[in-house]
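# nightly structure sweep
# worker-07 picked up a monomer target from the shared queue
# config: single-sequence mode, recycle default, output format = structure tokens
# input follows
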Amino acid sequence: MNLKDKIKKFNQRWKTPSMVANPEDEFVKFKTRILNFMSDIDNHVTVSSVAVFCRYLGIPEKWEGEVYGNREWSYNLRDRLIEENNEVEFYKLMEIIFSLDIKTSSGYGDQITYSKETLYRKLLQSLEFSNVNLAVKKLENEEIIFYPKGEEILDEMLVNKVMDFLDEQSNKHFTDALKFYQAQKYIKSAESLRRTLEEFLRLKLQNKKGLAENKNELSKALKSRSTDVQIRNVIVQIFGYLDQYFNENSKHNDGELNDAENEFLIYQVGILLRYINQVI
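# output follows
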């Protein structure tokens, strides 16, 4: 039993009332957990990565040196994490840091003592104890992305598991959709979802047709696999609605979309992708 489950059972035994978490307090706790294991992050990234980090954020590079010797060290990454109190911007900084060149260090017996993987595990442990609107996912190419979490079971079934079976092209567009959603660029997120569906259908149906044309090809493929006619009609109808929406809103980047609607589109696309992957 992990510590989180142990505390939960303690609260149940003592009938401790559930308290509604204050989002600001929860973020402060999460930030502290991150800083506890990333306070020396500057020592474990390359000098060129520090420069990239500073250039991207438009902040001056600050280096300190020893009295004896020529060695210099940086606190640029650590200090920027400490300074950032905006929750979304903090998550953006974290994603940037995980994209940098993080050096792997070994100790006695060549045992790895520091690496991107160890940082990732500590991040997951911190999330386990935190109640913040954040989910993370490591892709097949080792990229680590941060995005807002929804309902846990939906995220697991319709985001994480979907990303596990998508091909490279579809996965890239789906990842972009999550990133744009996180950045509140909802129309760009919708367009990436359109591209996800388009590329995945091309893969499954083995053609180069667009989404509108492949709607009919999908219907034929489902019929050839003896899928229920009503389910088939529902699937094709949903594709029709989505294609119409994309044409009117996201294709030319001139539509309007809010957070809830963007989240709905992500889950809807996830449902379609799972079904198509299972049937075709």
